[in-house]
């Protein structure tokens, strides 16, 4: 919903980029867009969408929209699928990001008496330093571990009596399994987990929550728009609150670009209303979610979006059917005896696509019976016949960062 305050900020942003951003000046000239076309909130849909490829093409510093002396830091995407995207930050951008992250901690009930162990990576990636800046602004004690070295992570949890774990869901599960396998559950003092950077299913969530005995909060963000900390779930877990004084969220139909009403599932588009160093206007995130109408039971005035259920570029087409990882999460979550971890292997044999789903099962569950159930459920729900292989918990690899689940070998 674009209120008067948001619309005024957006107009100011358009004026600013038309004067100072070579990226947007060239883009809007190329696309024949004049900012004077935007007279009402309804006109926002006329503003051209910004894409990830355009940001990559601006490498290295083509997104910079302020003089050199105002830039205090850069962050970067991983660049695993091409050139990285480099986002310059001003001092105010860094402060604004810390303010948003502090709000996330407060939304999760974290206080200055907590001890926050940060396991996401530091460096060019936005994760670790974002968690740290917000925690320091809050006044909590930071344990800046970074990723990996699991024995040391657990030792620090024990010795420093860590109360809050900041982590990806994959690494939180790895830590939970390690702590349980070594019988260390009673030696740790964790109360909460702030989990982000990848989507995760309900079974994975339940396992982490139960094995570590903690409350879990989803946190969301992306390098292009500050980083993690632009939204978080509250104690009611009915969506994620985002900071609409800093960001404008829209949901579009990913195929047509048409703006969708509140409540409808589509692709999230973000505008950074006050970001200085590298502002973004109507940026296509590829993340799939919906805006949740109405107030939250927690009473927060900040609006909500739903959990990220997948990405438009995570979709694979097998035997003519579009398949998202979220569908597989949902299927396994609904089947008693199936655990949270899985891998999908796709190849091409004798002119036909083949999909094999490897998934972990609970102990004492008959593998063949569960495999037959998974094959039948996959056909009924998603529409294709697959091969299924049930393995014991712990057989599939764990990750200290994000877990890779889809292996498409058809074009290797």
TrEMBL record:
It comes from the Bacteria. GO terms for biological process: phenylacetate catabolic process. It holds the Pfam family AMP-binding_C_2. One of its GO terms (molecular function) is phenylacetate-CoA ligase activity. CDD domains: PaaK. Pathway: Aromatic compound metabolism; phenylacetate degradation. SUPFAM superfamilies: Acetyl-CoA synthetase-like (SSF56801). This is Phenylacetate-coenzyme A ligase.
